[in-house]
Amino acid sequence: MAPIAAERSIQIIADGVPPALAVFVDRQRLAQILVNLISNAVKYNHRDGSITISCRSQDTGQASIVVTDTGPGLAPDDLQRIFVPFERLGAERTEVEGTGIGLPLARALAEAMGGHLTVSSVLGQGAAFTVGLTRARPRRARRHPARPAPARPAGRRGTQRAQGRTGHHRPP
Fold this sequence. Notes:
Elements: H1 2-7, E1 11-14, H2 27-43, E2 50-57, E3 62-69, H3 102-112, E4 116-122, E5 126-134, H4 156-162
Parallel strand pairs: 1-2
Antiparallel strand pairs: 2-3, 3-5, 4-5
Helix pairs in contact: 2-3
């Protein structure tokens, strides 16, 4: 989406992901959700606007990815209507392309992964879409009992005989 955003002078700002933050998701589904949210943030934003993508870890065992734009925002009555398939809130009468299935699909995908998709907005100031997902448990370093390293023979022939090996061996 960066080239399309650049054509409209929209800046995309990606806040850093906290170290060790991982979520338990289907990578392809999450990518589709993010494409839909960022695409909408570009399409419905103002020229010279901005989009911020941030990630946060919650104490509840969840993590959130928030896509915030500086577009026109949504009226309170429209906040749930945007998740109705094919509902474009009048955008079908504008030059903004779309079908009205991106957000319903994104919400369904988030829910299929045990998460959620919500929106908050202030009319005239933009919108923030939050994807809540289950955090993955951090991988712990595997601890194996210390095993002694195999003894290194001083000479190949003598060690093989000393250990009682009867296989083929090469002369020194």
